[in-house]
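Quick question, first post here. What does this chain look like in 3D?
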Amino acid sequence: MRISLYYLIIPALILGSCASNNNAGNNNTGDSTTVDSNNVSKMQDTATNTSTADPAGNIAMTLSPGTYKSSTVGKATLTITNNSTEDVSFGDPYKVEYNNGGNWEKVSIFDEVVFTAMMHAVAPGKSQEFPINLQPVPYDYKPGEYRILKGAQSGDKSFQLTTTFTVDK
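> Answer (accepted):
Ran it through. Tokens below.
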């Protein structure tokens, strides 16, 4: 009986110490590898940031094609180019906004879109293409200028990448 208790107590102690180590790693202690997911979510929801790259200007996002007819808006390719010295990482989510007389307004269909929880990384000096759908559900794009916003991280910095596209009649 005494041996059986040891077999129960020792694994419980080991598992308990593993759980406390994992929780300790989740505290934001300023470690450059820690990303605060609340800040990333807030960053992705902003509609006023008009920068087209990271603060240092070494990471850029482009869209192909860059012009659509209102009846052909749909599949597109985002390209993330990393000319920095660190990996850049980002998830699948993106938002689309419409330029209404100088004020960026969100395209509401993207509030309903569910993205996979996939994290991507682009190494320094590399580019990578990602297919996207600008019309995941039917939507009547008005002619004008639109932009895509995507949250990204590099090192201990979070920022928002943007790129624009045009819809013609």
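Residues 1-52 have pLDDT under 50 and may be disordered.
The radius of gyration is 22 Å.
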